[in-house]
Design a protein that fits this description.
It is built from four helices and three strands, in the order H-E-E-H-E-H-H. It is α+β, with helices and mostly antiparallel strands and 102 residues long.
């Protein structure tokens, strides 16, 4: 379940994903499978080839793309999340969710 984002932010992400853009959406998230992880960044794109290429270029396994979802995406967590958000210049998401203090 997602926390800490607005409906407008979610709808904007969905629209960009549907248009074939690589879109980033960070939100609070709790999953017992990942103790200590409190945020996730969903990197979405409905062009699966483009999203797979994005994964490969970031040393991530495209087999972990959530393909059955209406909005295909890869879940970024942990240090890789911070690394990629920093490289992409998405400092607002880093600061908003206090990712550097973890």
């Amino acid at each position: 379940m997602a926390f800490g984002i607005t409906r407008e932010e979610l709808n904007s992400w969905k629209r960009r994903v549907s248009q074939g853009e690589i879109a980033y959406l960070t939100h609070y998230w709790l999953d017992p499978r990942f103790p200590g992880i409190t945020t996730v960044t969903k990197v979405g794109c409905n062009d699966l080839n483009k999203l797979s290429d994005w994964c490969i270029s970031n040393a991530l396994n495209p087999n972990y793309i959530h393909r059955r979802d209406a909005y295909p995406h890869f879940d970024l967590i942990g240090t890789k999340q911070i690394e990629i958000l920093t490289r992409e210049g998405l400092h607002e998401q880093i600061n908003r969710f206090n990712l550097l203090s973890k």
